[in-house]
Amino acid sequence: VQLQASGGGLVQTGGSLRLSCAASGRILRTNAVGWYRQAPGKQREFVARITSGGTTNYADSVKDRFTISRDNAKNTVYLQMNSLKPEDTAVYYCSTVVYWGQGTQVTVSS
C-alpha cells in the first residue's frame, strides 16, 4: 500500500496551501489518517488526525489554522493550511500508522 502526499510548496507568511493524501483501495476510508511533520533538526510531530467516522483532532500549534478532511469517493484526505507561519516549514507526511506517505515539503517564507 502506498500513500501519496502532494500539494506542498513555497508560500509567504499568511498564505495557504492544501495538502492531499491519496491511496489506492479502501485504506483511507476504513482507517484513521494523520498528518505529521518534521522540520530540519527536529523530531517528527503530530499535526492533525481524522478518524474513519470523521472525528478530528489537532495539535495546539495548528488549531484554528489547519483543517483536516476526507473525501471517501476520491480516497483522499486533505489538510487545508491557512495563516501559515515560518515555523510551519517542514516535510509533511500522511499516515495510517501502519503506512506512511513519502512526504511533501512545505516552506513558509518570512
Total count of helical runs of at least 4 residues: 1
The gyration radius over C-alpha positions equals: 13 Å
Structural class: mainly beta
- Major beta sheet, strand line-up: 2-10-9-4-5-6
**How can the largest sheet be summarized?**
6 strands, mixed
The first-to-last residue Cα distance is: 37 Å
Strand content: over 45%
Could you estimate the helical fraction of the residues in percent? under 10%
| Total count of strands | 10
Q: Low-confidence parts lasting 5 or more residues at pLDDT below 50?
A: none
Helix and strand element order: EEEHEEEEEEE
Query: What is the average per-residue confidence, as pLDDT, rounded to a whole number?
Result: 95
Gross geometry:
globular
Describe the structure.
The chain is globular. The protein is mainly β. The protein has a six-stranded mixed sheet with strand order 2-10-9-4-5-6, with no helix packed on it. Strands 1-3-8-7 form a four-stranded antiparallel sheet. It contains one helix and ten strands; from the N terminus they run E-E-E-H-E-E-E-E-E-E-E. The longest helix has 4 residues, at 27-30. Helix content is 4%, strand content 49%.
